[in-house]
Give the backbone structure.
Amino acid sequence: MGIDPKDKRIIQELAKRVAEIAALPQQQETIRLWKALNGLKPVRPMVTIDQVCWHEMDVDGELAFQTADPFCQKLETRLRRTLYQWKHFPVDMVVEPHINIAKTIRGAGFGLERQEKTAALDPANDVVGHYYYDQLPNEEDVEKIQIPQIRLDAEATARDEQQAHEIFDGILEVRMQGLLPNFAPWDQLVQWRGVETVLADLAMWPEYMHRLISRLTDAHLALHDQLEAQGLYGYGQSLIHCTGAHTDELPAPGFDPRKPRARDLWIFGMAQIFSSVSPAMHEEYELQYAHRIYERFGLVYYGCCEPLDDRIDILASIPHLRKISMSPWVNVERGAAGIGPRYVFSRKPSPAFLARDTFSPEAVEKDLRETAAACARHGCPLEFILKDISTVRYEPRRLWQWADIAMQVIGA
């Protein structure tokens, strides 16, 4: 079945607007600034905003669907959000002259799906509370973690590619993309077992926890073997974990876009549950396993919400490490002193500033300036990444104002 002509016209008009923005000289200048930061020779700090509460963002129907077909609606959502962000809070985003279409890849799972109950304060918000049921309570359950057996669904991929070309040819380049990597095994284990269970068993059942993480790491390694062998990695990353990935160091020599390799790519990883464990336990149960994954890749971005300011010394052993997350819960001065000029200080300002009863621009500016000053004292390449924005109290202009303040603080 072909694409409905009305849907096609709607998507093409949005795509033309995106293409016009992508052609602006400003895009190449922003890419130059990202490359400088990621090469540890920053011109200035950089700013990104991601993981937005889009259900609270609509203004004057800017995000409202006009298409009917599910495939077109997915494209429409991406294009409308790109245009909205460029208009209202662009900060250092890069709008590129292509559209990524995901290849349909089957069999990338590990044999388990989370079993949970959830609780929501706002039914329109996809940020909810989770209670996970333990699916791996006994030692023999380690065998439930299966080795992926991936394959390309060529028929579904060809169908999506044909439809994308029908819509975008002559407007935006169509890029068929495979999987882009990350390694967060403890986030997976928490979803299969529950937070309290995992933390208790790290202390009370250490041999079993080593068996679980070893098994899961082996499964991830097998997944990456297959992705590389079958040419099913993505390529040309513009973002890595919500921030600019542009760099002159990737892809590696010998790159072929038809068959990307691990060494051509960034990977990001994290162990958020390890907010509650010692650096020694973090090294024993996470890093010694993660190194086996990271050593394959060109560059590594490590961390998310877990505070890492007290363990920079053990993170330094990560192969190809380039960025370290500094979450809202770190001691900024200690983190900056540990990172220095060796890595990018990837600061995650607290999104709670946007969620309070009253929005305070003065508090936002004070928070950002304190981080910028600490990084300047210690020579840290700095980026601000505002993410995990679960609410702006249905006042989108709070986010727009945050963006303006951040760009003023960094002197853009």
Observations:
- The radius of gyration is 22 Å.
- Residues 51 and 338 are 28 Å apart (CA to CA).
- The longest helix spans residues 206-229.
